[in-house]
Amino acid sequence: MKRVTIHDVARSAGVSRQTVSRALNDKAEIDGGTKQRVLDAARTLGYRPSRFARGLVRQDTVTIGLVIPDLRNPFFTEIAASALEAARARDWHVVVHDTADSPEREIGTLRVIGSQVDAVVGYFSQSEEEIERHVAGLPVVFLGREHRNPRFSSIRIDGEAGIAAAVDHLVAAGHTRIGMLDHNRRNEPSIRQRWFRTAAASAGLVLDPGWILGANQSVDGGALAFEALHAAHPEITALLTFNDIIAIGALRRARQLGLRVPADLALIGFDGLELGALIDPPLTSVAIDTNRLGTLAIEDVARLLAGDRAAAPEDLVVRGALRLRGSA
Prior knowledge:
Blueprint (H helix, E strand, L loop, with lengths): L5 H8 L3 H8 L7 H14 L17 E6 L5 H16 L3 E6 L4 H11 L5 E4 L5 H7 L5 E4 L8 E7 L1 H13 L5 E6 L7 H12 L9 E4 L3 H14 L5 E4 L2 H13 L9 E6 L12 E4 L2 H16 L11 E3 L1 E3 L5
Parallel strand pairs: 1-2, 1-3, 3-4, 4-5, 5-11, 6-7, 6-8, 8-9, 9-10
Antiparallel strand pairs: 10-12
């Protein structure tokens, strides 16, 4: 697809190239009506100012925008490290943006990177229409999310079999009262909670609605949520968590409350962080291969940049597998 130029915008708005430049850079030399006409034309045409013309990088360098919700979470740090390594092997540059899991910061990030990079990859909560509005014309690869726009692509995370294996492992150990600490970002259950409910039903377990509680995605969030869950439902003998960070917080608080892990409480996280091997006892988890996830993302960006707009290969999925350590 031919790239829209500043000359195309000028011709559509009926102004000079210099006027387009002034309007896009919010200069005071033009009146409001003209500025709005230029902005409308640029939006309609999907124009993005050339990052090369702005001197941001060399013209022969591919730059990827990597959008991460929280670099303090080691899961995302591991993904970023893998993507950087895969990009380095191609002599590409990667610009990493941390949105702090904020929809507002995500919008701000999209506004910035639209004119700075050749392609975008990462985690997004915004609609595809909103993303397209800010990065029109750019290849986009979603991590952990499905896509509808044929210009976009996705690397899926499938933890269903891993969570089923986790539930089966707990049931085999004699646990029937299994709880879960889910995330609390949205007013709906996560896909991981749905996988847990399906696995529990398949194992013949009946879940008390109170056995599932939301938690902030942090060590402190996991600790607070577990304390509340244990106070309300001390009968729970096993616990799955939305991610390893929540699990580590829950494990710490459980031990502070005098519970033995795994004798009194079996605990299984999700992500398989290397950090989980360093705590006592080491954390059992449904492990995601973050190296494969980051590598696949860069490989799919390369496919899109090469002009391959056909449907992505069916194997663009990273599946979770139960990694047994000492906590369950």
